[in-house]
Every structure is written in C-alpha cells, then in structure tokens.
Amino acid sequence: MAREATKATEPNNLTIDGQTVPFKAGQTIMDAALAARIYIPHLCHYPGLKPAGNCRLCVVEANGKSVAACITPAQPGQQVCSDTSELNAARLAITQMLFVEGNHICPSCEKSGNCRLQAMGYYLGMLEEHFHQFNPRREIDASHPTVLLDRDRCILCDLCVRASRDVDKKNVFAIAGRGIHARLIVNTASGKLGDSNIEADDLAANICPVGAILIRERSFDSPIGERIYDRLSISDTAMTEHVPDKGKDHD
Amino acid sequence: MTERKIRIATTSLAGCFGCHMSFLDIDEKLALLNDRIEFNRSPLTDIKHCGPSDIGLIEGGVCNADNVRVLREYRANCAILIAVGACAITGGVPAMRNYFDLRECLEEVYLNGTGVTNPQIPSDAELPLLLDKVYPVQEVVKIDYFLPGCPPSADAFLQLLLPLLDGQKPHLAVNQLHYD
Amino acid sequence: MLMLMMSRTPLHSANFDKQHLLHRLYALQHQNCHISTESVAQVAGEFNLPVSQVAAVVDFYSFFYREPVGRYHMLLSNCTSCGYRAGGIDVLEKLCQNLNVIPGITRADGQVSISETSCIGMCDHGASMLINGMPLVGLDEKKVTQIARLVSEQTPLSKWPRDWFRIGCPIQKRGLLLRDNSRSGDSLIKALTAGPQHTLEQIVHSGLRGRGGAGFSTGRKWQFCREAAGDAHYVVCNADEGEPGTFKDRVLLQCYADALFEGMAICAFVVGAKRGFLYLRGEYRYLLNHLQETLERGYKKNLLGRSILGHDGFDFDIEIVVGAGAYICGEESALIESLEGKPGIPRIRPPFPVTHGYLGQPTAANNVETFIAAAYIANDGSERFSAVGTERSTGSKILSISGDCRLPGVYEYPFGVSIQQVLDDCGGDNVQAVQIGGPAGALLARRDFHRQISFEDVSTGGSFLVFGEKHDLLSVNQNFAHFFAHESCGFCTPCRVGTQLLEGSLKKIVDGRAVAADIDEIEQLSKLVMRYSHCGLGHTAANHILDSLKHFPELFGKRTVQQAFSPQVDLEAALETARQITHRDDADAHLE
C-alpha cells in the first residue's frame, strides 16, 4: 500500500488555492488549512474531535478528485482547490439541503444569531432554501432539567455523539435509523435525555452547531446585534474553535 | 423620455405585516422614493386587484387557496416579483403547523383543545380553504428576488429597491443578510 | 472429529442466535413480530452493548420493526423484474384489497401486514415476495386469491403449496465456473500442495478481478492482506448482492456453495486467516440451512476446521452472518460494520479493509463469484482461466438476466461478449434499452448494443435488465430513484437529502407537471449527489438519470409542460384534506 509513513518527520507542503501550506504527517487537508488560517467551510468538523466527514461542505478538489478535506490525509505536493465558484455553489446547495430536511424556523429559534448553520448560509450568500421542504415530524425531548433536545433542528453532524463518547466519556448520544429517517437518539433504556448523565457543562451539551441541543435558561442571553454571527463570519470563528483541553479541574 | 413612476404592488399573505412595517421604517427616505414610485394594490392603498406593476413585494407564506390566488395575480401582473421576509421565503412561523397533519391541527384548535366551547371546525364558502401545508412563495410561483429577514431592515429594503429603480440588479450586503 | 463438530454452532440453536446481534434480533422479531423497547434494552444487556447501538441497529435494517407487523408479514419486491408490477397487474394492490390491508399498516387484528421491499433477487421468477422471510414467487392474480384465502383461514405457512416456495436454478448458459462441481476438495488440495506464495502468484497471474463490479485485482488484494500486519487476518465473503436485477449469487450459493467455501479456504490459506465470514443477505435467509449443511460437509471432509487436510497449522472456520435488509451492506466497509454488529454505514477510506477491516484487522473481502473463480484457478491453473475473456478482463462473467426477455436466468459468458449477443441468447427482441450493473450501473440504448461486457467497457456486478420497446423508461428511473432514496444510509448530506429530492423531481416529471427548468435542475442535482457523497452508493445513485437524459432526452421533453414555472406540489391536491374536513366543494374550494 502507498502509505508514506517513512516521511513522517519531514514537514511537507501542499497547495490550497495556489497558496503553499505546510503540513505534518498524519494531518488532513482540513488540519493543514486551519493551521494556515485558511477557511474551508465545514459544519461536522471540530478541531480536537475525530473527523466524521458527513456534512460534505468541506469537499475540495485534491489533485482533481472530489474529497472531503476533513477526512482526507494531506499529501506532499497535493494541489487543493477549495474557494472556487463551483465548489461554493455546491456548498450552498448542500446547506440548503440541510435547511429543507429539518425544521429550521430561524425567527423562532433560541440559537438564532449563534447558529453555525445559519452562519454558513450567510457565508455562502444563501437567500432562500431553494429545495422543496420536507417538513419532518420529529420528537422534542424536554425530560432533562438543564439540557433540551429539539430534533427539529438537528443536522446529524454527529458532533455531540463524538464529544460525549470521546471527550465527556459518557456516550450519551448516537445516530439511529437509515436514510432520511436518520435521527439523534439518547443512549438510555427509555431513550430520554432525562435518564442520561449528561450535564450542562459537558462538551456534548455545548457543541451543537444548531439549536438542537440547548442549555435551558441560557436562551436569548445576548441581544440582537451582539450575538456571535451578528458580529463575525463563520470563517472567523472557525479559526478559534478547539475542544478544550481535558484538564478536569479548570474553573 | 418622460420619467414614468415605477409602480409597486405589495401584499401580505400568511404574514404579520411586520415586513410592511419595516418597509415604512425607511422613514425620511420614503420622501426620496415618493418622487419615483407609486403604489398599486397594497395595504397602503384601497386598490382591490393588482394591476400591471413593475415590482411586486410579497410578504408571508402561502397557507390557503386565497393566498394562492392573490400570489398568482401578483405574478401575472408584476414584472419583477420579490419574496420579502422569512415567512414568504421559508413559510416562517405560520409553517410551524407543517409538522402536523392539517386534520390534527384543526381538531386540536376547534374541537379538542382546552377552553373550546361549541366545538366545530369552521366551514363557510367565505373562508379561504387551508392548504395541507404552509408553502414558501417560491414553491407556488416563480420569484425573481429574495429579501430575507424577520423582518428585513429598512436599509435592506433600500438596498433592494434602489438598484431596481435604476434598472439594475440588486445585491444584498453580507451584513444585511439575516434570517431572523 | 467430535471436537471439530463442537467447535461450530449448529443451525437454529440458541448458540446461533447468541453468536451475532443480527441473529438475536431476528429471533426476537420472528417471535414477537417486532422488537420492543424492552427487548432492545434486554439485548443490549445480553451482548454487553450500549442500548443506543442496539437501537441504532434495529432502526437501520429494514427487516426489524419497532411496531408489530402481522403474523403473516408480506414484503413485496418493488424491483422492475421481480416486483409487484412485473406481471402486468399490481399484485400489491390486489393483495391489499383482498385482505383489507393498507400498505405499511398492520391490520387491526394483527394477522396481516403488507409492505414493499427492495429487489429480493427472484427476478427470474416473476413477481415475488418474502412472506415471513421466505420467498414466494410467481405471484399472479390466481395466487393472490389463494393467498388471501389461506391467510383468512390462518393456514400455517408450512401447509401452503410447496411449489410456491420452490426457487429454481435456471442456468441458461455454462462456462468456466458453472460446470460439474463434484470434485469438491481438489482446488484446496492443489493450493495446499503449491503453498500460499505459489497459490497467490497463480491468482495474481490469472488476472482475476473482483466480480462485485469494481474490478480490483483479487491477487493484489490478497497480497496486501497477506502482507498487512495484524493480530489476526480475516476472510469475508460478500453474499449481499442487492443490486436490483442480480440473482447470480443466489444460484451460486444454491448450486456451488462447496466451491465457494473452498475458495474462501484458499484465500485464508494465502492471507493467513483462521476465521472467515459469509455475509448472507437477509433476503436469502432461506438458503441458510443448505449453506450450514454444506459447511457441515466441508468440516466432515476436513476442508474446514483444524489442520485442514492434514496441513498442520492451517485452521480455518467459516461463520454465516445473515443480514437484515440493507443494500448498503454490499459496500465492503459497511458490510464489515454490519458484521461487527453496527448499522451498515460505510467507513472513511483510507484505511481500506484490506489493512483495517473486521475488528480493525487485515481483511480480504470478496464477492461469491470471485471466490469460486479463485477455486477454479487453484485447480485448473491461471493459464486456463486467463485464456478466456479479454486481456484486461480475464475469465468469465456470470450474468443475471431478467426483464423483457423470453429466457431469464443465469448466463456465464467469457468477458468481452457483446450486449447484442446476450440479448440474442436470452430472447430479448425489440429491446429499447438495457440496464447493466443494476440501477447504479449503466443504461444503454440500442446504438450501444455492440459494446462489450468487460471492466474496460461495460462493467457489471451481474445485473442485466432488459427493457422492451413498450417499457416506460421514465417509470424505471422513478423506480431506481426510489430505490436509492430508500437505501441511502443517511450518513452524508448530499446522498441522504439528494436522493429524496431526486425521487421527488422524477415524480414531478413522470406526473407530467415538470417544466424545462426542472430537467436542468435534476441534471444539476444528479451531478451534485454523485460528486459530493461519501461512498459508492451516492457516487452512482444518479447514473441512471444522467444516462436517461443522455440517451433518451425526448422522453423528458415529452412529459414537460410548456411554461416557465410549475410548482413542485400539486396545489389543487393540497386542498383535498381541507375539502374533506369542511365538506366543501364550491368553486372557491378549488384552484384550477
């Protein structure tokens, strides 16, 4: 197999939209891009968590092949195109797909202004949802005293699943079901969040890019105009994201 | 060539008139527009049917047969049709009934809900018949431009309208793009 | 010998169920007609798994249900060849009428439920269904009436006419592999004599490429696996053929299982595996007994087990794992996930299964036909194999031929055979198109019938669907679009959402409500799904639409309405519920 393990110690270079970018062995295209402060749109990726590759917004052209940057190993000399009109048009369509398959009523959502799906729409200049809306009927889980699960807004990015399993070590969430019936489930016999050991300061409770997992009594705490994406672009905030270091007794 | 006033028609379908209020919020700039535009059918006039117009502004989604007819009338008479606001573009808050069957909704509201007296589902030829879902306007007719926001700000209205009055393609600035 | 017998799991024993999550869930489904929330928690305890994993598995596979299905549970194939409309009448509708059932809803008395399912691989047997998991073939109006009577009288399935369940092996044309197979054991003896390295060289030299359709060199795959470091190596046979229109593995499993297991043992010998799996598609569960008996024979002859044929240190066991209705598990990494007791979601590749497969260990996964070809090569030599076929596609290809032809069945051809030749042989007259390689493959029009079946020209896993002149090709597209929307695993956005959108767009076209812009739109969307999806399912899910647009553009043109825009929804129909609720039918209660 063409595994380039021997070159592990030498830093290598690839190019992203013509810019030379160094990378270390084991890094993905996304890792290399973020390290060089180049933004490749993404929703299901969060530095510090194992990548999943499900949202497909980060698909780039690497040596002419369409690959998801977050799960594709960086290779020496790789020519990556990302910020092209064609790829951005596809990203817009994929974002619109995420909007129509769920129930995203921004004016009524507590996460509005701090929502990464919304911010992705702004970044890509999305004016409308384009596709026919699916209007799914999804269950809301309000059984937990501090954490609320509103599946209407879930985009199946799997971040909470990974955060809970790999960082919180609680394995509270999973994705079940097939195809369009895929949905977020809770790892309890009852399937209810209230029976899980999730807590409001768990990473899994806070990493949701949309308004699917919400901390109660924290809604609308910043006024319109002062919310994250009133001020910043998702391409800015993406540069500062990282799973907090695991030192348990911070605070 | 004498300058003809640009004729604008507006309506609110399944909306709250908030977008119209925001439109009026352009305040003193209304005076600026006043020399260049005139209104056809609109909540601001008493014209009953949309006549030939240059620009149609549609607020609100499509929730019943009457909305469909009005929207079609606007499409047939407006050279440029613009979907204004979250409800027109996505269905918005009225579309929150879309997760339920229409029958369930009506039964809950008119038959089984708490506090219902004289339970019966209204049925009268005078009442517009409800569609099974609330639809965004672009699912019903062809829409030329979109102005998102709940509501779009007064500045966003201007950003959209001013170029159109000059026969140019409008472009919404990134800081004016929001869905709430 | 007794030890050997005990090292394996007898069929239908508690052990067989305990052996694998899917088997345990199947047993519960079978017993209780559904898998309750309590059962999910109970099984999670038994297997020491998170409840969410068991729940995810139950929800992923089509043959598991959260709500009770009927005691007679009928799943009618919706394939274009063995589907419920294959015989000209809609047997699903007829059955539902006769039994007073709404499709997908269990009758109030809990006796019957009728639903549809993806192709069940009975395409050479006419309209077919699975009834409580057993294939019942050749459905026609008469049979439907009889079925309704038997169900009403609550006659147990065991007392239903035997021949309804008889699945034939219609081999219409034999070549290298479909021959007398009485010499069981010869291939393995030769391989053991030659040694693993020499056997591997033979496989490499033969030019054998994977018969699932992708065509990766089998020899190279085995070599990579052999060279990969790991705690254990595994052999996996992919018997999850699910491309609508393919059934050749069914015939191979039915008639050539000895050769298959021998091929797997040879592979194990080469790569150094002690354990192998046959992943059998749930639709072929009826073959389980036969396959277990064949394994049993193999153990008795010491073709499997410890110190195989006296070769010290060569131990190899084969387990059968039965799937539960998920086309995506034909994708090898999804299959391995399924083997590991998870939903069949394709993994991120690289790493590939050949280095990181089952339990993260080196795994050689091949198609049924590939293993049988490997057994042939071990016995007859690579030269005799590569003498057949073309330079880059050596050997033979076994095709499953069905649709509008007089002689459906299994045909074995040397690679390089022309499509026209195949059509001549199977009695396909007045054919307007063929779909080769299933819905994910290629749709070809008459002008392409000179083309050849081979990896370098028209590649196929085995499905060969024939469409006569009278066949409405757009309805075929619609059928395929439904197939992909139903079978998408849901992992990635473009496939999960895009296949749904494609199905909706095709419906609009078929219903005659689309405009020219919709045709452009479906083309764009097709390309998007194929380019941006995670795995092969999405990458190929819209081939059939693009092929149709390319070869039969007039079909789309004919259905479109000449206006600039038409709504996706039928608005007049969208008022129907309100009309019913309010009992209104006045002019204002209608739109058009």
Whole-Å distance between the termini of chain C? 79 Å
CATH class division of the largest domain in chain C: Alpha Beta
If classified by CATH, what would the architecture of chain B be? 3-Layer(aba) Sandwich
Distance between the termini of chain B: 42 Å
Helix/strand order of chain B, N-terminal first: EHHEEEHEHHEEH
Strand residues, percent of chain B:
15-25%
Give the overall shape of chain C.
globular
Q: Could you tell me which chain pair has the largest interface and how many residues each side has?
A: A-C, 43 and 48 residues
* Structural class by secondary-structure content of chain B: alpha/beta
Produce the secondary structure layout.
The complex is a heterotrimer of chains A (251), B (180) and C (592).
Chain A: E1 12-16, E2 19-23, H1 29-35, E3 59-62, E4 65-68, E5 79-81, H2 85-101, H3 116-123, E6 140-141, E7 147-150, H4 159-167, E8 173-176, E9 183-186, H5 203-206, E10 213-215, H6 228-231, H7 234-237
Chain B: E1 6-12, H1 18-24, H2 29-34, E2 37-39, E3 53-59, E4 62-64, H3 65-77, E5 78-84, H4 85-90, H5 102-112, E6 130-135, E7 145-147, H6 154-165
Parallel strand pairs in B: 1-2, 1-3, 3-5, 5-7
Antiparallel strand pairs in B: 4-6
Chain C: H1 2-6, H2 14-19, H3 21-32, H4 37-47, H5 51-60, E1 72-77, H6 91-99, E2 112-117, E3 129-131, E4 134-136, H7 141-152, E5 171-173, H8 186-194, H9 196-206, H10 218-227, E6 233-239, H11 248-255, H12 257-271, E7 273-280, H13 288-300, E8 317-322, H14 332-339, E9 363-367, H15 368-380, H16 382-386, E10 396-403, E11 409-414, H17 419-426, E12 431-436, E13 442-445, E14 463-468, H18 473-487, H19 493-510, H20 516-532, H21 536-540, H22 543-551, H23 553-559, H24 571-574, H25 576-582
Helix pairs in contact in C: 4-5, 6-7, 8-12, 8-15, 9-10, 9-12, 12-13, 12-15, 18-19, 19-20, 20-22, 22-23
Keywords:
heterotrimer, A: 251 residues, alpha+beta, Ubiquitin-like (UB roll), Alpha-Beta Plaits, 2 domains, 7 helices, 10 strands, 21% helix, disordered C terminus, C: 592 residues, Glutaredoxin, 5 domains, six-stranded mixed sheet, 25 helices, disordered N terminus
